Amino acid sequence: MAFVPDLDSLESSSLNEETFYGPDCLCLQKKPRLDSEVTSPGVDIQVTVTKGHPARTFRQAAVLVVAVTKLQKRPVHKDFADSDLGGFLEDIFEPISFQQIEDTYARAPVYRYTRSQSFDILDIDHKCFVLESPTQLVALHLQGPSARWKVKLNIALYRPRSSQGGPGTGRMPVALGIKGYQLYMSCVMSGTEPVLQLEEADIRKDIESMELTRFIFFRLDSPGEGTTRFESAAFPGWFICTSLQPRQPVGITNQPDQVNIATYKLSGR
């Protein structure tokens, strides 16, 4: 009567590669030396192949059954690859979707400081600039001894990074300071429109941040008329202006020379 092995008992007994069930014995025996042995790569199981021994057929069948059972329950080992790492991370973390956004970011303007020059300034109505309070600049007519109250402009000259300004374009970047003070005109937003103000600062240096462009104005010269205008670099189209009425604050406008004066004459050094 042939003996049929119980596969569950084979599996539960943790049969290893060195033991097997003999055809005439129900207990585990040491594996005899066989004609040839082949080791399956990457799997901790040995498969035995014999030649010309019919008596060993039962043993071969038992070994193969156990080997197949182990192969079904144990994963095949392989070298760890980058793709394995990707799959491993996907199992741990929630997938994140990325959207490619194409855009361009403008770099902050760069103005290289070169030197400073001092000038007297008059609007085309011959009004002078006067510092009426620590931070208030007004324009009015001065004659005789009162002319000593007029202020001189200390104009800091800059060299632009690109063709946005320069001698060849008639748009020279400058900063307008009050000589004898650390006060410079700046153009900032207030409410819905920009305003002109005086700030205490020392900007006789390179301007490399967008924030400091509030101090920069483009000097627009008209050589044929000997006049100039000052346009805000932070707010293009807005120009430093004076009122048609005397003793009014110096301001800024986007309607030059219409209800105000935005054209000046510079003289002296």
TrEMBL record:
Family annotation (Gene3D superfamilies): 2.80.10.50
Which Pfam families does the entry link to?
IL1, IL1_propep
Tell me the keywords, alphabetical order. Answer: Cytokine, Cytoplasm, Inflammatory response, Lysosome, Mitogen, Pyrogen, Secreted
Task: Extract the SMART domains matched here.
Answer: IL1 (SM00125)
The UniProt record lists the keyword Cytoplasm: yes
* Entry GO terms, CC: cytosol; extracellular space; lysosome
User: What positions does the domain Interleukin-1 propeptide occupy?
Assistant: 1-94
Where does the UniProt entry say this protein principally localizes? cytoplasm
- Which cellular compartments is it found in? Cytoplasm, Cytosol; Lysosome; Secreted, Extracellular exosome
The GO biological-process annotations, alphabetized, read as: cellular response to lipopolysaccharide; cytokine-mediated signaling pathway; fever generation; immune response; positive regulation of cell division; positive regulation of gene expression
Listed GO MF terms:
cytokine activity; interleukin-1 receptor binding
Q: How does it assemble?
A: Monomer.
Q: Which family is this protein grouped under? A: Belongs to the IL-1 family.
What is the protein name for this chain? Interleukin-1
Q: Which organism is it from?
A: Aquila chrysaetos chrysaetos
Gene name, per UniProt, is LOC115350114
